[in-house]
Design brief:
Blueprint lengths: L7 E5 L7 H12 L4 E4 L9 H4 L3 E3 L19 H6 L8 E6 L13 E6 L10 H5 L5 H19 L4 E4 L2 H11 L3 E3 L19 E5 L8 H11 L2 E5 L5 H7 L4 E5 L3 H10 L3 E3 L7 H8 L4 E4 L14 E4 L4 H11 L6 H8 L4 H21 L13
Parallel strand pairs: 1-2, 1-4, 2-3, 4-5, 5-6, 6-7, 8-9, 9-10, 11-12, 12-13
Helix pairs in contact: 7-11, 10-12
Length: 380
């Protein structure tokens, strides 16, 4: 069944910046240029022209003063806000969800496909990372109990899940008891380029400053080893991370793309100490010809090739990362191998696989038959 003539809605949790999830959103908007977008929060100017030129519907939460900046504090109202969107006019609903977007209520007979970046981290296996030290933890735990129940119930509103890695496919099975097709997220590899000549004398972190990113581990290790560390990004942990930094750590904030590319291409390696669902930064580093030293768990196991495009360390400890850095400095890594690996995660490949998958699902739904077997993208 062709998608032409079908009215398409794309639902995205919130649109306050342009990160990995918004790269997926941008690629979807290009595939479905007539789609309308629904989101809890939207900051005009925070995304690109292609996204912002579409009709954008925001929730009632977006109208509350200060909500776009402090949106995390409105988490208890997210399920209500997402369910209030009127999608009765749409034949195809595509949710891009790491929080509540998949909980929209589609019209009867509409097909709802969710590109699930992850089941809610803070509601499930990373709850302690986010809330364990809070004075409000007893109250938060009561709400999280409700949120986990809502999360499971609302997962049944999805006709088919697509996800970004085999790692997250296993989490969807564990928490939702649902199958998912793996389609790796898109990267515009042409935006990154390696440079000739010797590398710089620094390591690099590119990340939002959230607790589970474990940027503290990179800082402690580089300070111990007297290695220069450049950190690109901002976020909630900025004050505490800067308090850890010594003479060898430099915070650069947010940078324009050209400066980011130059720093990626010139680094000894990207340090990736957190456990990520997929992790776009290692792929960007490899696209710039730079190897990766990553914690050996999560989505990076499907992107980084050991001893070819990087190394893994096995524990989130200074000693384990220190040993990996010292081992790394005794090896040589090819720029060409890194770039070739990054090419496997291109934008056109993502768009082609998503469109083919949706067309198969729509054809099956129209025939009222079970969907055909969908094989996941191959891992390394």
């Amino acid at each position: 069944m062709p998608i032409n003539g079908k009215k398409v809605a794309i639902v995205h949790d919130w649109m306050n910046g342009f990160r990995g999830g918004e790269q997926v959103l941008d690629a979807l908007v290009e595939v479905f240029p007539d789609a309308e977008i629904f989101t809890l929060f939207y900051t005009p100017g925070a995304l690109n022209r292609r996204i912002e030129s579409r009709p954008i519907h925001v929730s009632f939460l977006n109208k509350i003063p200060g909500a776009r900046r402090y949106y995390r504090y409105f988490l208890p109202f997210f399920p209500l806000a997402i369910e209030r969107f009127d999608l009765s006019a749409f034949d195809l609903v595509i949710s891009s969800s790491h929080c509540v977007a998949k909980g929209v209520i589609p019209a009867p007979g509409a097909l709802h496909i969710c590109y699930c970046h992850t089941p809610m981290r803070y509601a499930w296996d990373r709850y302690r990372d986010y809330f364990g030290k809070s004075k409000l933890e007893p109250l938060i735990s009561i709400f999280m109990h409700y949120l986990r129940m809502w999360d499971v119930v609302s997962s049944q509103r999805v006709d088919h899940f697509i996800t970004n890695s085999n790692y997250i496919r296993s989490r969807i099975d564990r928490f939702y008891r649902r199958e998912a097709t793996v389609i790796y997220p898109p990267l515009e590899t042409s935006r990154f380029r390696p440079t000739a000549g010797d590398r710089g004398n620094y390591y690099l972190v590119v990340s939002a400053f959230a607790p589970y990113k474990r940027i503290d581990l990179a800082i402690r290790t580089c300070e111990k080893l007297n290695r220069k560390l450049f950190i690109i990004g901002t976020g909630q942990d900025e004050k505490s991370l800067k308090a850890l930094a010594g003479d060898h750590t430099v915070f650069l904030g947010r940078l324009p793309h050209e400066e980011l590319n130059d720093l990626l291409a010139g680094a000894k390696a990207l340090l990736f100490p957190g456990e990520e669902d997929f992790g776009i930064a290692p792929v960007e580093a490899m696209a710039a010809g730079t190897p990766v030293i990553a914690y050996g768990k999560g989505g990076c196991l499907e992107t980084v090739i050991p001893n070819a495009t990087g190394l893994f360390f096995t524990e989130q400890s200074v000693e384990s990362l220190e040993n990996a850095i010292l081992e790394f400095e005794g090896k040589k890594f090819s720029r060409e191998a890194c770039v070739a690996q990054a090419q496997r995660f291109g934008r056109e490949r993502f768009q082609r696989e998503v469109l083919q998958t949706i067309e198969r699902l729509m054809t099956s739904a129209a025939a009222d038959t079970p969907p055909p077997s969908l094989s996941p993208s191959p891992a390394n």
